[in-house]
């Protein structure tokens, strides 16, 4: 973007996390295979951002270096692997195990930011990361009678962990490239690559691309506008202005927002353990982000 918003980046990030929190509700309402929903979410998001990127940022595209272009391709591939691995993990392990492991991504972002980007991690930020991850683990275990170890399989756990590592790579790539590349050219390449990769996943799984009712197409569009544009795209604006660790930890607020929306829209009442975990996530996110925002 060429014009800075007159609001703190932390406030913008909060809006992006809230928008991303709607993803679980929209997916719950959808009857389509999860990989199909993920594909159309990214495809429609790409269709929305590409005209702006080409129309208003054509010169920025021309200035895109080979290094940054390849980096954006890598980020898009990482995002696609994240979606594919995380969704597939749910077919092989418990929801509790999958969510707990995929939400370990701030650990990989923190280590990667320290090793690759030279971002220092202070004591308060580290403490916030630990508290938020523990809270996320408590939340994901709150509504299940099984435990992480007794119900999970090695394969499913490995896929969920792969989802955490790859989304960390996506965040780190964005933090590096967005220092030099405008928002819309960057996300157009990332989302385009991600859509192609997810299309291959849908083909490999043998799912249909068409034949869904109008309601499903509206849900796909909702996933693109809410979690896609307002969630991920706005997060890519913020990541130019805040450390990658701050953005990554803030994303841990997504399950809290999703739980609140499920209470209002789906009449799903969280149990006391889930509430306690959610409060811990909010506290951890606050400690890790407010000091540095």
UniProtKB/TrEMBL annotation:
The chain crosses the membrane at residues 12-31, 37-57, 69-87, 93-117, 124-142, 154-172, 184-205, 217-238, 245-267, 273-290. Residues 12-140, 155-289 form the EamA domain. It holds the Pfam family EamA. Signal peptide: none annotated. The keyword Transmembrane applies. One of its GO terms (cellular component) is membrane. The keyword Zinc does not apply. Keywords: Membrane, Transmembrane, Transmembrane helix. PANTHER family: ACYL-MALONYL CONDENSING ENZYME-RELATED, EAMA DOMAIN-CONTAINING PROTEIN. NCBIfam families: TAT_signal_seq. This is DMT family transporter. It comes from Natrinema halophilum. The lineage of its organism: Archaea, Methanobacteriati, Methanobacteriota, Stenosarchaea group, Halobacteria.
């Amino acid at each position: 973007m060429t014009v800075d918003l007159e609001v703190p980046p932390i406030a913008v990030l909060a809006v992006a996390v809230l928008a991303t929190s709607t993803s679980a509700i929209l997916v719950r309402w959808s009857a389509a295979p999860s990989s199909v929903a993920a594909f159309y979410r990214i495809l429609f998001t790409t269709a929305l951002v590409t005209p702006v990127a080409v129309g208003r940022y054509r010169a920025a595209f021309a200035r895109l270096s080979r290094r940054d272009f390849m980096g954006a391709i890598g980020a898009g591939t990482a995002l696609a692997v994240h979606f594919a691995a995380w969704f597939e993990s749910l077919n092989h392990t418990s929801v509790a195990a999958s969510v707990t492991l995929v939400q370990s991504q701030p650990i990989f972002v923190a280590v990667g930011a320290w090793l690759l980007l030279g971002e220092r991690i202070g004591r308060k930020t580290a403490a916030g990361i630990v508290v938020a991850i523990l809270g996320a683990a408590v939340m994901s275990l709150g509504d299940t009678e099984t435990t992480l170890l007794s119900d999970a399989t090695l394969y499913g756990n490995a896929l969920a962990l792969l989802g955490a590592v790859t989304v960390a790579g996506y965040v780190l790539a964005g933090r590096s490239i967005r220092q030099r590349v405008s928002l819309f050219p960057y996300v157009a390449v990332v989302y385009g690559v991600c859509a192609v990769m997810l299309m291959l996943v849908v083909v490999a799984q043998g799912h249909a691309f068409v034949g869904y009712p109008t309601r499903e197409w509206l849900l796909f569009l909702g996933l693109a506008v809410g979690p896609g544009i307002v969630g991920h795209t706005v997060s890519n604006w913020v990541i130019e202005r805040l450390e990658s660790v701050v953005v990554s930890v803030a994303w841990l607020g997504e399950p809290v927002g999703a739980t609140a929306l499920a209470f209002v829209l789906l009449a799903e009442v969280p149990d006391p353990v889930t509430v306690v975990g959610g409060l811990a996530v909010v506290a951890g996110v606050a400690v890790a982000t407010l000091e540095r925002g």
